[in-house]
Amino acid sequence: MSRLANCFAELATQNKQALIPFVTAGDPQPDFTVGLMHEMVKAGANIIELGVPFSDPMADGPVIQAADERALEHHVSLHDVLDMVAEFRETDKGTPVVLMGYLNPIEMMGYEGFANRAQAVGVDGVLVVDMPPEEAEEFSVIADEHDLDIIYLISPNTDAERIALINARASGYLYYVSLKGVTGANTLDVDAVASKLSEIRSISDLPVGVGFGIKDGGTAQAVSVIADAVVVGSVLVKQIEQTPDNANQIKTGISTILQEMRSMMDAADRSIV
Amino acid sequence: MATLMHESVKDYYQYPDERGHFGRFGGLFVAETLMGPLRELREAYEKYADDADFLEEFKQDLKHFVGRPSPIYHASRLSDKIGGGQIWLKREDLNHTGAHKINNAIGQALLAKRMEKTRIIAETGAGMHGVATATVAARMGLECIVYMGAEDIKRQEANVYRMRLLGAEVVAVHSGSRTLKDALNEAMRDWVTNIDNTFYIIGTVAGPHPYPAMVRDFQTIIGKESRGQMLKQANRLPDALVACVGGGSNAIGLFHEFLNNREIAIYGVEGAGDGLETGRHAAPLTAGKPGVLHGNRTFLMSDNDGQIIEPFCISAGLDYPGVGPEHAWLKESGRAQYKTITDDEAVEAFHQLTRVEGIIPALESSHAIAYAMKLAAGMDKDKIILVNLSGRGDKDMHTVAAREGLEI
Question: Looking at this predicted complex, what is its ipTM?
């Protein structure tokens, strides 16, 4: 069983949901990320999504783009991100790590070269924002050979036919982006999310994570009642944006947010479902 | 290999396939949030591409609003001066708003109206596509927002003012390198967020399917008119076609009509900026490599880590790190050849055409003129080169003046 499948199976036996923080690798400094990953696991994270910096992050909002720009000032490359995962794995063998980014850096490294290295360092899944399943035929085969799960996004306007197509290609979990728009956008309509999730679940047996619009313990709790995983990104990256020169303050800020989310998720009343 | 492929391609009009692929290029590389809107656009375009009323309205606007057909003109003094092949010009510079961009802007705006979208967005580099879009939006009573890099806004104040006069809101983009590619990123974000009422008018033959095919189709009027005009005025088709290539819409507009006429040589001209060897250029087809950006697989200016390299060229309209996927395919199949012209050569051609023919070309088009002059020099006098004079040079006065130490 893959680390991701194992993680969700174990959480299910405890009637818990996964907390998945996202940070951009190398933000604000390349040597900061591995320590932060460990810190996030301590604060209650079950899976870590690590952003691979890209010069043109079209699907992201200003907060994540600024994070990419900070990392790129230090020339953080896909190779560097894979090295960070290798270092993380020296002491953490269990927490799944998913790389999230855009296709061009992987194209330049070559699918085979990337998959080899990703498997070797202990990457569990890959979410390529601008690679829909229709364009993923070649990559799917190679990822599969290297035991890499491919995580796909589902959006509010993804219809049943496409959900089935995505489900056929996806493994690990599905990532439902609960808002139209880019990362970091506002407001979350829990009822609308719940009804879309039941549609997704009628088609797929994969765990479903929900992201976009989760900013505090309250929204994390509300989403945890209806989803298998809660993905949180922009609110964490904002902590880095506010004090990029103060590593301790960033770690404390991010830990505090994750701890609050963890405790409110675990305390959620699920009887209403 | 390229030549073999060229011979094996039976029909250049079979591209793209139903998923937007030109050989291994093109496609639909976007986030899931855009898959729905792009399908809606594709279905609408497929419906109206064969709709007689739609095509008639497009034709009427091209005639009465744009002033088509644009003439072709034998640049005989320039040709005599070179003493080789004859240079003919397709005068897209005479269109309303001064360039070929308006053809596509009208086509997409008419489609937006059919799709009942009330809000138009666009990206622009030099401002020509932004001006064309703002013009059409004013003409049709649509709200218009134009995204433009903060650096480009500084360089193109006059066009920014034109767009504002036309009622468009010009939004400065401060992210990334603050130029065209960042404006495109920002327009995509707006579109994802405001899908319900918004139509995104992309200005070139790049982007995700169906944009490369749709923008091409709206621009093929250039080549179609040229065929008839050449036969009428010169009693024959040209021996070679030349056009500048940034994203590549004016070039594909001229080339497409003649792709299956294999005896006609086709040359696209990229901006070599300070020279290819300096790294400061805008020539992805000549000096780049295949990759994925802005929704399609194509030749890109990318470093080995996959980060996009900022292009460099005197003409903002060629300043794009990618290129339309059909050009990538035409290069790989061997049907078209891609050459480069430096800033210095383009400015020299700008002066030549201005002084010898009384036509002030856009700096983009000056790249095509410069290459055509080189090509003509090695040709017999009975050969004909048709150059797409894609835009007029009014917008470039301050750039050329500044290069010569003048401020105007």
Answer: 0.94
